[in-house]
Amino acid sequence: LVTMVSFGQKTLNEGTLVYNISVETGNDKPGMADMLDGATTTVYLSGNKSRIEMVSGLGSEATIHNASAGGGVILKDYSGQKLMITLTPQDWSKNNQKYDGITFQKTDETANIDGFKCFKAIAKLKDGSSFTVYYTPDVMIANKDYDYQFRTLPGLAVQYEMQNGKMMFKFTLASINYGSVPESKFEIPKSGYRILTYEEAKQK
Predict the structure, then answer these.
(1) Residue 130's pLDDT is what?
(2) How far apart are the first and last CA of the chain?
């Protein structure tokens, strides 16, 4: 049985994940949040490098991170304004500290999502909040730091929900590609952006 499970499990060292995003606002009137409905999040992975990019009707935002160096940048392009926020390894930890100590409580509930048999788990954060995630143990991400909230998840997040005020965001895996990713995806732009440090960005 152990041999069969090991054989069936894949480790993604390089590839691309695409998630579709749906938003429930609890409000019948159109609002800015509705422009996020139908947005996509694309995760590019290659070794210790990652790029998570969200594109919506409002604009785009990308986080580029190098797990070996520890730092990274956040690129924001909204309404023609392009900002680059630089993060030192210490900044990266601060930006993700809400997920420190996160635990995943597996339940008996399962679901078939995007062709994967998924297990339902309840993620619990140290601030007392929680969210639901369906994951498959059949795919493991080699770079555990690509998404801080899933560092200790025993598999790939296939679907998860996150609450923000009255809004509920649902991320659902649409595709997974094990092909190579161009190195250009992880290059930090040298021009075209207004540069802010992490501390400067927090003050705005």
Answers:
(1) 93
(2) 55
Instruction: Report the candidate in 122, 123, 120, 124 with the shortest Cα–Cα distance to residue 108.
Output: 120
SS3 state at 152: coil
At 106, phi and psi to the nearest 5?
A: -70, 140
Cα dihedral 7, 4, 140, 127, rounded to 10, equals: -170
Nearest to 159 by CA among 103, 101, 96, 109: 109
- CA–centroid distance for 11 within its chain: 18
Question: In this model, does residue 182 exceed pLDDT 60?
Answer: yes
Kindly report the pTM of this predicted structure: 0.89
What is the rounded distance in angstroms from the CA atom of residue 54 to the CA atom of residue 112? 25
Name the pLDDT band for 8 (thresholds 50, 70, 90).
low
- The rounded distance, in Å, linking the Cα atoms of 47 and 186 is 11
Tell me the C-alpha distance between 61 and 78, whole Å: 8
